[in-house]
Write a structure and sequence with these properties.
By secondary structure, the protein is mainly alpha-helical. It has nine helices and three strands, in the order ααααααααβββα. It folds into two domains: 152 residues, Ribonuclease iii, N-terminal Endonuclease Domain, Chain A; 57 residues, Double Stranded RNA Binding Domain. 33% of the residues are buried.
């Protein structure tokens, strides 16, 4: 199998048990490729890494941002641990070049597939945790995700939900979503806005908030839940 010292250097981690790092990079398509090798895929490590990452992201948001509500922290965490964020971090790390893939997956562009990259990154995080404990895993997350934390908090979840809905709507319907103000109630110091988001002639979601931006974000979030729930591959 590959020499992973360069990856260890990029991670800033020297494994006591390098086989954990190797396992984290084994895609299920690779299992039948090398005859005589007893291998397991990275799927169990991916499961563990997902839980560890979610916890560490939640802990950082809780300690670093006391101004955020539970809902705001939940939405920011969903942005930080979503597949496209993980894949972006994995690409920055050059993780795709180290994946063990079957020939078909390799020919199908598997080294740059978001699912493969995101899963491998979670598996690598779990490997670090098993090899060196939670402190080392936390240091790795803070190092790899530092820019993502900064950007997510700076931009806020409003931009993310609306941009994700925009991308999904354009790719699926070739239409851009539009937002309509339904209601504005309350005194100037405590107004409440309710907005609906429409694609074509279909209302996909409604949301409320202390200003139009927050209401539009909530409407976009509801629309994303509906669209992703309706989608059948």
């Amino acid at each position: 199998m590959a020499d992973l010292r360069a990856l260890e250097q990029a991670l800033g981690v020297s494994f006591h048990d390098p086989s954990l790092l190797e396992q984290a990079l084994v895609h299920s398509s690779y299992l039948n490729e090398p005859p005589g090798l007893a291998l397991v895929s990275n799927e169990r490590l991916e499961f563990l890494g997902d839980a560890i990452l979610g916890f560490l992201v939640a802990e950082k948001l809780y300690h670093d941002h006391p101004e955020l509500s539970e809902g705001e922290m939940t939405r920011l965490r969903s942005v930080l641990v979503c597949r496209d964020t993980l894949a972006r971090v994995a690409r920055n790390l050059g993780l795709g070049q180290y994946l063990y893939l079957g020939k078909g997956e390799e020919m199908g562009g598997g080294r740059d597939k978001e699912a493969n990259l995101a899963g491998a990154l979670e598996a690598v995080l779990a490997a670090v945790f098993l090899d060196q404990g939670l402190t080392a895993a936390k240091e790795l997350v803070l190092r790899l995700f530092g820019a993502e934390f900064h950007q997510a908090v700076r931009q806020g979840v409003e931009v993310d939900y609306k941009s994700r809905l925009q991308e999904l709507s354009q790719s699926r319907y070739r239409l851009a979503p539009s937002y309509r103000l339904l209601e504005e109630v309350g005194p100037d110091h405590d107004k409440r806005f309710t907005v609906e988001v429409v694609v074509g002639d279909r209302v996909l979601g409604t949301g409320s908030g202390r200003n139009k931006k927050m209401a539009e974000a909530e409407a976009a979030r509801a629309a994303l839940e509906q669209l992703l729930g309706d989608f059948t591959p």
